[in-house]
Amino acid sequence: MPSTFFGLNIASSGMSTYHAWLNTTGHNVANVKTPGYTRQYVNQQAKEAISLGTSWGMMGSGVNAVSILSQRDVYYDNKYRLSSTQYGKYSAMNYYMHSLATHLWATDETSESITNSFDSFFQTVTSLSKNVPSATERTQLVGYAGSLMGSIKEAADALKEMQKDVNDQIASTVDMINAYGTEIAYITRQINTLEIDGARANDLRDQRAALIDKLSELVDVQVKEVPPPEGKGVTQFIVSVGSAVLVDTFDSNTILYKARDTFNSVNDITNLYDLTWSNGQDFGIHDTDLGGKLQALFEMRDGNNGEVFGGKATGKEGDTVLTVTDVNDLGNSIFKLDIPAENGVLTVDHSVYEYDYFECEVDQDGKYTYTFHLKKPLGKDFNGDEMHVSDPVDYRGIPYYMSQLNEFVRTFSNAFNEVQTSGYDLYGNAGNQLFIGKDIAVGAEMRFDGTKAMEDAMANGGYKFSSLSGGIVSSDGYLHTSYYRLTALNTCADSQISKDGRLLACSDQPDGGESNAKNLVNMSKLSSDGTMFRVGEPTEFLRVMISTLGVDGRKIEAAEQNAKNIRDSVEQRRMSKSGVDEDEEGQNLIICQNLLNYQYKVLSVMNEVLNKLINETAI
After folding, report:
1. List of residues 6+ apart from 481 with CB closer than 8 A
2. Do 341 and 292 have their domain in common?
3. Residue 107's pLDDT is what?
4. Range of the domain at 184
């Protein structure tokens, strides 16, 4: 049976509960603009009723505030993080695609772009045909030749700087991921310390969730929380990145980045970063489910459209030489060959080997055979096993467009040089190659074994070259080598011809006279040579490259906007569930005030009843 003061206890429980509700409402209002804050509410229930042992049953004993909980919706949290991962990925891609377009795309007819320089060069070729002896016209032509190669080199240099910037961004992003992981583990320790007796650290949980939201923009994350048995003890909290664990309750796993001493393509910058986990687990930098900004950075830095050198490998266990035949399209052309000259990486039947350099031989039938000189012996026999150099990354990033520039400059230079060397200059001498390159390591300009030289060598047993950059500079001061050594980064116009326009081989006869421009006509025809490239003439190759970039850029831009719209939509729905609404909280303040007033009224009435009972009835 309840005591005489039972009614006061009921009023007291109501006052305590609604006071907690009032304070929680005030806390919500105070944090209405706090990022990541989730609305809190008081979970209340009726106190255990008391049996009176009478026919009319049990009597209620008041109300209890059981707990203060966050109105968080896990479903929308997961949806938001997935959409944030997509937005982070496409936002980073869009930024760098705009940068690519800036360096490769002509915004107007006067900009110093590759296409404009190409058009200006051939317009000058046509102009010279009207006045072949003119020293002014010849000087102008070789000037435009230098401008054309300069435009290509400038674009390549810009791409190289972009790759360096992306590589630095990878390191910065990894640092941020590690920092988030450490902070999440630290907050989890605080949460578990406070919740070990069954309480709920709502504000700390909001801070942790906000960190995971930020982390999800950098990389795809999965979150799993395993509550302790019977609701008391340490809660296990796991944050995973891909197949690895970044945070396991109190411990955070660190991602390490290390500059590699190998290359994926001939134009790669030095010190590209590879990632590993601090526990020794491999980090799949090219996994398609990596997600977020980090995936975008790796695809932009290493993206080769999935096109890599491949063939069939043969070698004996213990040997340091691997022979590759039946190579694919990228290996069947000197002009498309973009594998690293030195310190490259190849994969044979899931076994990875580094090579010092390679040699190439083209036989009389035009079949290419490569010999890779490895840094360590083969671990087993290979007999026609599939191999490839570098990882295929199915995105058109910086390496893809760099390889396109390489193919253009090699193919076009070879075609023009073949015409130039088949004619004669104003001195009556056979022409020398105009479009060449400068080998930085040797410090000399290069001249190349053109198509005719290769064909002659193949007819006499085969054409061979080594990827090593060394060699002996001949008496004419040039390093004679393969067109493989020519890249968009080292291309230039011959310095001797640039100084003396009379060295242009415009005539097809050594004694053809100053007015003979038959070889110059052949040069002019190259601008519309539909057999030079697989897609057609040189201008068409450039248009296809730039239009591909434009299409990819528009797709990424649309994807970024769609991802942003989805993320914003999910965030709006999430906030409608868990956010603080000022009007709703203002209404709750009035409700709390009224409920407390009622409890005060109950207390006042019970006070009067007890006063009457005790002081005025003499019981």
Report:
1. 439, 446, 447, 448, 449, 465, 471
2. no
3. 61
4. 76-92+170-299
